[in-house]
Give the backbone structure.
Amino acid sequence: MPVQILFICLGNICRSPTAEGIMNTLLEQQGLSEQIRCDSAGTSAYHNGEAPDARMSEHALKRGYKLGGRSRRFRALVDFEAFDYIITMDDANYSNVLAMDSKNQYFSKIFKMTDFCRHHVMSEVPDPYFGGNEGFEVVINLLEDACRGLLEKVLNEHGIANPQTD
Ligand code: 4NP
């Protein structure tokens, strides 16, 4: 069974599809796509069924990441069990996901993405939706950093050899 990672933001059209796209690129580059899988979802259904935000996709593509998938809402009944790591982008997403874990059964799976940054000192991946171009670049910078840190944790915790370092 592959390790399953779920990235969560509010709308599932900017930050979490970008995290998914960056992580998928790292996994492909390192030949790990069979062992580790990722998906993304939103805490809201505002953009249900929509493709990633066009501005986010354009910025991501310029940095070498092709975004895909369609927005969907986080499904507590299914996703808490199905995923091994549930990674939220900001404090609001984190509290909302924790609140859906009504029996506190899944606490150890739920993290904030910025916990895995090794170079950036930020406590959230800021929502770029209502801002300008710079916000989308900040998202990509933070997510590139955090995806590397998260991948290292997952490899260590599951005893998966990293072809880049082994
Ligand atoms: P995301 O960005 O949570 O990174 O996908 C947003 C997308 C849409 C909205 C807010 C944030 N919205 O309010 O519609």
User: Anything to note?
Assistant: The chain is about 40% helix and 15% strand. The longest strand covers residues 3-9. The longest helix spans residues 133-158.
